[in-house]
User: Fold CYTH domain protein from Roseovarius albus.
Amino acid sequence: MAQEIERKFLIDQTHPEVTALMQTKGSHIKQGYIMSDPKGVVRVRRMDDKAYLTIKGPNTGITRDEFEYQIPVEHAEHLLATMCSKIIEKQRYAYPLENGHFAEVDVFPQIDLWLAEVELPTKDTDFQKPDWFRKEVSTDPYYFNNNIAKRI
Amino acid sequence: MAQEIERKFLIDQTHPEVTALMQTKGSHIKQGYIMSDPKGVVRVRRMDDKAYLTIKGPNTGITRDEFEYQIPVEHAEHLLATMCSKIIEKQRYAYPLENGHFAEVDVFPQIDLWLAEVELPTKDTDFQKPDWFRKEVSTDPYYFNNNIAKRI
Assistant:
């Protein structure tokens, strides 16, 4: 078991640092939800040439239980095709922060949404925000991945 | 991916073969459902000292997609405690049949239900039924595990 502690931010898409980041390789992510309700989430994710099945418990603020298992890519493709209604596609870019932290910038081309996420070891861990971070949306359900899926 | 082809039968609990089977070791199974609806099933199972996460597609007759992944026992216990409402406990006994097939006899002590299941490679595979098999209930939703859970 892991606990996921994640903070999410809107970003300034026009900032030169972001423009430079978009020139890096990034990872292509395709994901869908077998289940997605207030009790929890069962997610299937294809990421480049790997695939994962992830169980998440209910959200409590910025903390939630998360269990992730690598599964064969062909299982993921079958589950995405047969048991997931909406499929999210996004490009993910890694941006190193100070003290070993890093941000993941997700670009959702289907709905022109750009989000930065920072995973932290504890709820109270502080980190240095890049100056292209804008409003924090960590606890705003509008930006939960399962709700983003509904807008796609 | 595997396809699960499973036939289920009620059994004669008083038959001497069944009485003898009950003297064998068997496996203790504890399982619950993160999701269980017509679209599919996400099941957590603890079986003796191992644990599994299983995704099943919708039922189509006696055939359904099934993906099973071994997971750490402590993950399973956490998922059972936090994300599964009803927990089924059952004792499972293996009974060899002819031609390499075998039956699994499940005893559900919480509701005094005894069921035999036979997994088969194809829908049309025939097998020799033991004389303590009674009515076939393969397609009767009353005997689906997720519905049995609701009666516990």
